[in-house]
Amino acid sequence: MRAVIIDDEPDARENIASILKMFARDVEVVGFGKSVKEGLTAINEFKPDIVFLDVEMSDGTGLDLLKKAEPLTFKVIFITAHQHFAIQAIKFSALDYILKPPDPDEVVAAVEKAREIISRKGTDRRLETFIENLNLQNARQRKIVLRTSENIHVVAMDEIVRFEADVNYTTAFLTNGKKIIVSRTLKEFDDMLKDFPFFRSHRAHLVNLNFIDRYHRADGGYLVMKDGTNISVSDKKREDLLQVLEKM
Description:
single chain, about 250 residues, alpha/beta, Rossmann fold, CATH 2.40.50.1020, five-stranded parallel sheet, five-stranded antiparallel sheet
């Protein structure tokens, strides 16, 4: 696979190139860029399979570059020194990112995921979803990518009724009755959806508040969802839940 590394920090470019040379020898670094302008030139010249892309550079952002590089024929692995709004959008889109300084295991894992996507030769909706999410004025209109071993599902927030945990896997239950099982923990979704109408009622349940039908006080108390499902509410979450429901 051919790779281009675009970052305004020389050390970051060199570190990733060294890691790839040592641990991913079938990846050839064919070009570099230290800005949006140089990155676009390298992409157009070398036609890479993978682009390691800094989120923020001196003359713009990774998003600026992606808009100018369309159609996107390569897989993107973001590089960043900061955990900010862009990282949330990257997580929503199930895209890979590496925090600086780059960790060899994280770089190799990201390359393996890119290799898997490339081998399928299918359309990767993740980048499109990422750009669409960042362009939305209303964050609540965002879509989330649920990536399984076989498919990449792009789902609107108002299509998700709830999430249910099963150790390191999480099942998303949709309004159309569909279930999607992903290899991410419920905590990851809980952290990701802090600014959205989701509530962690129990260690195994994260529910969309818009799909709660009622709170049943008897039998220890539980939620009844609009699809008829009964959802447990832990003792320590009960008061928080009642306060949230009273404000709705």
